[in-house]
Amino acid sequence: MTPIPQPPELPSDLPPQVVAYIRILEATIAELTAQVTGLTTRVAELEARLNQNSTNSSKPPSSDAPHTKPAPPKPSSGKRRGGQPGHPKAERTLLPPDEIRTLKPATCRGCAHPLTGDDSNPAVHQVHEVPVVTPHVTEYRCHRLRCPHCGTTTVAAVPAEAATGYGPRAQAVAALLTGSCRLGKRGTSQLFADLFGLPLSPAMVCKLQHRTAEALKPVAEEA
Length: 223
Known about the structure:
coiled coil, two-stranded antiparallel ribbon, single chain, DUF6444, mainly alpha, flat, 4 helices
């Protein structure tokens, strides 16, 4: 900010205290001017946001104020609702069946005459179901043996990959739920209990997260 010039009627040899006071006033004015500029910009942004509605932004119509005029209806395209002729048909992907049940009509639907024979190309209707999940538990029985020479007792050590009490698939699922799916630790713990029948505390979910992060650290550093 340009310093305020001294009034011509004042002598040029002002006392140092007066000059210092003038400098303080100049700095205060500059600071207040910057604040006013920032607040003016902020007010303009807020006013622009207040003027937004479903007709000029991506906001849903339910967020509009009562006085907002509804958007004009779009002109009709002349097409019927639903899929248009020639559009690619969306079909569910058929999977290799685990069980096949053959169904044959017993009688004719027109005259009720008994029917026999086989269809060389029967219609296929599949029912997809989630498999029943039961925990797979590996139990380590660590023997404690005493040395016949010195009498020292030695216990077999649990493998490092089994130290947490949960296998790599359980760790990967926990990391997927808390990472990509953004599920909380308590939600992940509840899902493990409900779907897999596995007791998994929120603290253990956090521990598995850290183990996964450490395992993926070299990959992240190379990326």
